[in-house]
Amino acid sequence: MLNVSIRNPKQSESSVDKKERDTRIIRKNNDEIGYKVKSGHLSLLSRKLFNILIWYAQDLRDKEDKDGRWCVSVAHLVKDAKFHSKDYDLLRASLDELQEVRVIRPRRSGGVTSEVLIPSFTLDNVSHEGNEEMERGQKKRGGHLMLWFMLPPELKKQMLDPEQYTRLPIAYMALLRTIPGLALYEICRRYVTNPGGVTNRDKWQNWWRVLTGSTDDATPPEYKYAKRDIFKRGTEEVNKVTDIEIELIEFKVGKFVRDLQFSVRLKQQANLDMGPPPIDAGLLSRIVSLGIPITEAERLTARYSEADIVDTLDLVEGRIGKTHLTKIESPAAYFKKALKDSYAQSQKLIESAKAKQSEERKTKQLEKSRAETEAKQESNKKHQLILERFDTMPEERKSELLKEFDASLAASTQAIFRKSGINGKMLRATFAAWLIQKTDLIDQ
Predict the structure, then answer these.
(1) Are 29 and 160 in contact, with CB atoms under 8 Å apart?
(2) Alpha carbon of 106 to those of 32, 103, 109, 193, 402: distances in Å?
């Protein structure tokens, strides 16, 4: 398991510039390609990390410490894996996975052995002697986080100086974002110089286990689903972002597919600028926090768009935070159901419809208010005009109209009118409105 301690790093860490970093090649022992997993499950990040650790070990051969360990900057490691995040718990979990997953390796002398990928590792903050021991998942400000690791002693020589190996460019492997894509690239890259241009032929169920990192006793889905989610998706990704092109070859017995094989060829010109963005470890962390394993979280990020996942996470996290509602017993199951059935998109449509209705109401209210304002302004103009005409009338006519207006008023208003006349603002407006109704009298 993980040990955290304070120590000064040896001056053994590899230092490469950007150009060299883009052209690095792993010489990976052919026995280390296409793992058959005995127990546990390898995630995409742990697979990438192991490949990169092999390169560092090969680059730093004979530069181990007294315990047989190499030292690598975590900043370089996550950059090589295109793992852009400060979520060190997820990084630790992926490294722990390399110690817990047991893979089946063939022995040169016959038989097989079950081994972990790395026996041990430590993560140390080495900025200065006074650093306190780090809390899990934390990085001290100003610290320089280092990884110390070792390879299985009995396999160390053949991993550092393999006799039969496949050349794997780190840059292309870093661009792959699915487990099937990465596993398929390693396997097919091994056969790129094969005169026949094809991989080995095997039952599709065995291909499924190797490309998903599942154990030998795992039950695959129906072939049509395995083809859609694993074989086809992995093939498309390899063809899109790497330096090789592959094609799925099916062998049928009757109408059923029994065996699979892949044709392989190098691309005439590969482009490193066409790859997808780095693994969004922050997104993975949010999914994992719901109780979903890292490997399944990676499959979800490969299958669904980032926008859909973010929207669904926001929806689920918001729902969990509403403590006045019924508690969600399984946030993981709720998230997967919400993602599959597009709850977030449905919620967006509802919110969009509500927003549209609200906007329409505001528009109607604004139009009504504008109309009322215009009507009031027009009324004020008419009042002003009629009062001006009233002021120019003979006194006798004015008295007649005022008496008639008085007779039309309620008793309470009459008292006010008889006391102050039409000098008050309200009464003047009332009188103007009454006059407009008496236009026929005024026009006489």
Answers:
(1) no
(2) 10, 10, 9, 23, 117
Contacts of 429 (CB under 8 A, 6+ apart): 383
Q: Cα dist. 381→427, 430, 434 in Å?
A: 16, 14, 15
**pLDDT value at 286 more than 80:** yes
Confidence of residue 10 (pLDDT cuts 50, 70, 90): very low
Q: What is the pLDDT of residues 54-81, one digit of tens each?
A: 999 999 888 888 888 899 888 888 888 7
35, 115 in Cβ contact below 8 A?
no
Closest CA to 416 of 430, 433, 435: 430
Report CA 208 to chain centroid distance, whole Å: 26
Residues in a beta bridge with 165:
29
pTM above 0.70, yes or no: no
Q: How far is CA 411 from CA 118, 131, 163, 419, in A?
A: 102, 91, 116, 13
- Mapping DSSP to helix (H, G, I), strand (E, B) and coil, where does residue 71 land? strand
H/E stretch holding 282 reads helix 281-288
DSSP string covering 223-262: HHHHIIIIIHHHHHHHHHHSSEEEEEEEEEETTEEEEEEE
Mean local confidence (pLDDT), 174-197:
90
**pLDDT at site 16:** 55
**Closest listed residue to residue 281, CA positions, set 28, 104, 79, 56:** 79
Q: How many CB atoms lie within 10 A of CB 25?
A: 13
* Residue (of 283, 329, 278, 275) closest to 304 by Cα position: 283
DSSP strands (E only) in 118-213: 120-125, 145-150, 165-169, 202-203
Please provide residue 346's backbone torsions phi and psi, each rounded to the nearest 5 degrees. -65, -40
423 versus 254: the higher-pLDDT residue is 254
Tokens 């083809």, located at residue: 227
The residue among 156 and 132 whose pLDDT is bigger is 156
The proportion of the chain whose per-residue pLDDT surpasses 70, expressed as a percent, equals: 83
Residue 186 near residue 26, CB atoms below 8 Å: no
pLDDT tens-digit readout, 19-50: 455 678 999 988 888 888 888 878 888 888 89
**Dist CA 45 CA 95 (whole Å):** 9
